[in-house]
Amino acid sequence: MCGIVGYIGSREVSSVLVDGLKRLEYRGYDSCGIAIMDEGKPNVVRSVGRIDALEEKIKAAQPTNGSVKCGIGHTRWATHGRPSETNSHPHRDCTGRFYVAHNGIIENYLCLKHRLSAEGHRFQTETDTEVLPHLIESYYNGNLEEAVHRALQDVEGVYGIVVVSTEGDGRKIVAARNGPPIVVGMGSGEYFVASDVPALLPYTRNVVFLRDGEVAVVGSQGVEIRDSSGVCMCREPETITWTADMAEKEGYSHFMLKEIHEQPRAIRDTLLGRLAGEGAITLSSELGNPAILADMARLHIVAMGTSLHAAYIGKFLIETLARVPVEVDNASEFRYRDAIVGPKAVVAGISQSGETADTLAAMKEARDKGAYLLSVCNVVGSQAARQSDAVIYTHAGPEIGVASTKAFTTQLVALYLLALQLAQLRCTLPQPEIERHVRELRDVPDQINKLLDQSQAISSLAEKFWRYRNFLYLGRGIHHPIAMEGALKLKEISYIHAEAYAAGEMKHGPIALIDQEMPVVVLAPQDAVYRKTMGNIEEVKVRDGIVIAIATEGDHEIARLADYTVYIPDAHPFINPILSTIPLQLFAYHVAVLRRCDVDKPRNLAKSVTVE
Ligand code: AGP
Fold it and tell me: Any catalytic annotation for residue 111?
């Protein structure tokens, strides 16, 4: 998820672009750049890191002359190619006539790159995006929007792009959308393009949101919108009433709630380019040397916090589907216990930020012991990624809220894909079984959308519980880590004490805590341990405990037993943990809001813990 902007008008173009990029920095902030067409001459400035660094470079660069200015800009959240000045956008073609800034993922960029290289094009970056300006160059015949249209016919994947060119008077921006958002802002005698409203709000509230397949041709005299076959369309501008802060959160009250609602998109992006046909997993190209993983004797996973909970789910999936023994360690413990990391051992670090000191240190420890290092990470170019032999990226996009939500569910999806890939490489699962898991995974985004519709109902449930001081979370099997995650979410944003237990542990102590002051959240989907979990619910009820059950749609028996029941769609037992997480995230969020906590920046916590 990157931020892109474009401007045509008489204002000082670089300050409009920089201002817009600053307002979109929450979308990505590892590198950035602008390209200004100054009377047909390109003026490109790019930089690693935050917009401030770019601004300094622009001040030092050659000021622009022309009266009517035209330019595009980009702030990056890397998916392909580590953050560097070379990999930062806008990207150009061989001749330096075409410049493109892109938000999204070009799935078939490798085969396009091979084809274009064979035609003599020279590539300078590691990015997927760079194929776009070269494609446009290969199709250009005097009409920029025509060349863009033809180039996009060859592209598979998702994109929001802006394109400028030195051709003609260089006063034209072509914008196109297929998936990630593009909005065009109508000013008086000036026009704006951006991937989101915050960049436009200081200048105009009259906007047109491009739809998938549409192209906007933005010139100094006006804007033309065309459909996917190039036919001009009439689109009435809408008037935006949001404040800039609301716009950054896309109308949600907090980044956490926005990120909870982004999970369908984040999971779709994490599956993108990794499933082929009915049931082929195509992750092995990201595993460095897949043979090492196919042949590994044992997998160790190290992580902290929410990522550690994902690791426990990973253990369940990989042991069951690929029959590889998996050890999971709290990273801060792993590095000081002189762990046995034998020959043919692989160690995986799971980290949203890729900068968590405990996890990095544990990975280094494993490296020193000769292990092959894999990481599951959300930040391209982070330390965890750089020190690994192979990286599986979760494409959740930037996660601003300290409480991890979309990064967690995309970690579960990435680990599920890894388990299936290993099962495919080690032939531990019949193909029809793999195909079934792939179908189930593809259904997850829509199932989560259905769950998000329950946000209001869960808010009403939170109304009944926000004053309590203690909670227990119970789960069995693959749901024990989900109970841990639910308890952590409540703790870290509402400051309520919450503990998670394997439900079978209750009789060995925690059951002593049960009374009217200790609500118990029980994960009880209809899986192999359902009956056992129902027994645990009865144990709580006979001691007058209060039970909130997360259950499978259509399960009326549990509704008779539990005080409150939240239903999840009926899905495969290995998909249930992803679905069960959503109501737990929403419950913690609504309780924290009712307790007037700073949901996005809870006390005593940091988004990335870079010290031990
Ligand atoms: C989770 O909501 C917390 N932010 C925290 O526990 C986090 O999961 C932990 O610090 C690990 O962070 P990482 O995934 O970036 O390594």
Answer: no
Taking the centre of ligand 1 as the mean of its atom positions, its distance from the CA of residue 352, in whole angstroms, is 7
| 224-283 confidence digits (pLDDT tens) | 999 988 888 888 898 887 776 666 788 889 999 999 999 999 999 999 889 887 788 988
Question: 49 — alpha (psi -120 to 50), left (phi > 0) or beta?
Answer: left
Lining residues, ligand 1, CB within 6 Å:
304-307, 351-353, 356, 359, 402-404, 492, 608-609
DSSP state of 277: T
> Cβ(72)–Cβ(103) under 8 Å?
no
Measured CA to CA, the distance from residue 524 to residue 479 in angstroms comes to: 8
| 489 CA: nearest ligand 1 atom | 2
Whether residue 597 lies in the annotated active site: no
What's the token pair of residue 295? 């042949």
pTM beyond 0.85: the answer is no
Following CA atoms 167, 173, 175, 181 in sequence, which dihedral angle do they give, to the nearest 10 degrees?
Answer: 150
What is the dihedral sign for C-alpha 150, 155, 161, 164? negative
| Contacts of residue 194, Cβ cutoff 8 Å, sequence gap at least 6 | 3, 4, 5, 6, 20, 24, 182, 183, 185, 200
In whole angstroms, give the CA distance from residue 105 to residue 91: 15
* Peptide bond connecting 445 to the previous residue in cis, omega within 30 degrees of 0: no
pLDDT for res 401: 93
Among 57, 364, 369, 607, which one carries the catalytic annotation? 607
Q: Output the CA torsion 333→337→341→346 (10° steps).
A: 10
- Encode burial over 550-562: b for 16+ CB neighbours within 10 A, e otherwise: bbbeebeebeebb
Alpha helices, DSSP H, located in 42-104: 51-60
Which residues, 6+ apart, have CB-to-CB distance to 23 below 8 Å?
Answer: 198, 199, 201, 202, 244, 248
The single residue listed with the structure tokens 């069995």 is 476
Is residue 264 within a helix (H) or strand (E), and if so which, with residue range?
helix 263-271
The one-letter amino acid at 464: K
Collapsing DSSP to helix, strand or coil, 385 comes out as helix
**246 CA distance to ligand 1 middle (Å):** 26
DSSP E strand boundaries for 306-447: 326-330, 345-351, 372-377, 390-393
**Which ligand 1 atom is the nearest neighbour of the CA of 607?**
4
What does the pLDDT read at residue 373?
A: 96
